[in-house]
Write a structure and sequence with these properties.
Strand content: 15-25%
Organism: Rhodospira trueperi
Protein name: UPF0276 protein SAMN05421720_12713
CATH topology: TIM Barrel
CATH architecture: Alpha-Beta Barrel
Number of helices: 9
Radius of gyration: 18 Å
Family: Belongs to the UPF0276 family.
Number of domains: 1
Largest sheet: 8 strands, parallel, barrel
InterPro entries: MbnB/TglH/ChrH (IPR007801)
Structural class: alpha/beta
Pfam families: MbnB_TglH_ChrH (PF05114)
Length: 290
C-alpha cells in the first residue's frame, strides 16, 4: 500500500473514533510498515512551508495511506498586530497542497514587530482581545476557505486584568466566528495544577459540542521553591490524570479524533504504537465498545 503510485486522497476524513500521532521523520518507515497502528497523522504546518525536501517527500508517501491534520504553531492569532500575510499565505499553500481533513491553531501569540519569539504566549481574556482574536480567526478561515479549530492553551500564570474566564472566552470565540475547538486535555491538567483550578469544572464549562479534535500528551513536573509546576513539554507518555480527564471529556463529546503528541524524548515506534493502542482502548470503553 505505502509504495502505491496513486495520488493522495482528497480531504480524506479522519474517523471520529480513532487515534493518531504526530508524524516524525524517525517513525515514517515504521509507520508505513505498520499501517494498522494508528488511523491518521498530524503535522506542524511550519515544517512544510517550503517547496521540497525530505519532509515533503515523506509526507507525500504517508498521505497516500493516512488521513491528515495540519496544526499551526506560528500564526499568532492572539497577537496585537495584524496577522503576518506571508505566513498566512504559506499556511494556505500547505493546506491547498495536502488538503487535510482538519486544520488547527493555538489561542496564543508568538511574535511582535517582526520578531518571532518561538513560544506560545498567553492572551488576556478581555473584550478587546476577544474582538482581535475573532477578527484574526475570521481572516484565517477566509484565506483557507474552511473553518479551523482553536486550541485551549497551557498556562503558567493568570493576568490581573480580564473581563471573562478562559472558557467564556473560547465559547464566545466559537460563537462569533464559527470556528471549532481543539480540546487539549493535557493543557487543562497542566493549567489546573499551575493555577489551582478544578479541571473537571473547566472541562464542563467549555463548548464541548464544537470539539473537532482532541490532543493528549505528557508533561514534566518541576518543583520551584516548594511549589509544584507542570510544564507542557510533550516529552513523556500521557499521564494517568490526563487519561482520566480524557474519559470524562468523551462522555460529553462522544467520539472525536484523538492525537497523541510526542515532540521530545521521542520513543521507539513500538512504544508509541502501544500507547496509541491503550488510548484506543480507552476510547472504545468510553463509547461502550468493551
Amino acid at each position: 500500500m505505502s509504495g502505491s503510485s496513486r495520488p493522495p486522497p482528497a480531504d480524506s476524513p479522519v474517523p471520529a473514533a480513532s487515534v493518531g500521532v504526530g508524524l516524525k521523520s524517525d517513525h515514517v518507515e515504521a509507520l508505513l510498515a505498520d499501517p494498522g497502528a494508528v488511523a491518521w497523522v498530524e503535522v506542524h504546518a511550519e515544517n512544510y512551508m517550503h517547496d521540497g525536501g525530505p519532509r515533503h517527500h515523506d509526507l507525500e508517501r504517508v498521505r497516500r495511506d493516512f488521513p491528515l491534520s495540519v496544526h499551526g504553531v506560528g500564526l499568532s492569532l492572539g497577537g496585537a498586530e495584524d496577522l503576518d500575510g506571508a505566513h498566512l499565505a504559506q499556511l494556505a499553500a500547505v493546506v491547498d497542497r495536502y488538503r487535510p481533513a482538519l486544520v488547527s491553531e493555538h489561542l496564543a501569540w508568538c511574535g511582535t514587530t517582526g520578531a518571532f519569539l518561538n513560544d506560545l504566549l498567553p492572551v488576556p481574556y478581555t473584550e478587546e482581545a476577544l474582538s482581535l482574536v475573532a477578527r484574526h480567526v475570521d481572516q484565517t478561515q477566509e484565506a483557507l476557505g474552511r473553518p479551523i479549530l482553536v486550541e485551549n492553551p497551557s498556562r503558567y500564570f493568570a493576568f490581573r486584568i480580564g473581563d471573562m474566564s478562559e472558557t467564556e472566552f473560547l465559547t464566545a470565540l466559537t460563537e462569533r466566528t464559527g470556528c471549532g475547538l481543539l480540546l487539549d486535555v493535557n493543557n487543562i491538567v497542566v493549567s489546573a495544577v499551575n493555577l489551582d483550578f478544578d479541571p473537571v469544572g473547566y472541562l464542563e464549562a467549555l463548548p464541548l459540542d464544537t470539539v473537532g479534535e482532541i490532543h493528549l500528551a505528557g508533561h514534566a513536573v518541576r518543583h520551584v521553591d516548594g511549589v509544584e509546576l507542570r510544564i507542557d513539554d510533550h516529552g513523556s507518555a500521557v499521564s494517568e490524570a490526563v487519561l482520566a480527564l480524557y474519559g470524562r471529556a468523551l462522555a460529553s463529546t462522544g467520539p472525536r479524533p484523538t492525537l497523541i503528541e510526542r515532540d521530545s524524548n521521542l520513543p521507539p515506534w513500538p512504544e508509541l504504537a502501544a500507547e496509541a493502542s491503550r488510548v484506543r482502548d480507552i476510547l472504545a470503553t468510553a463509547l461502550g465498545r468493551d
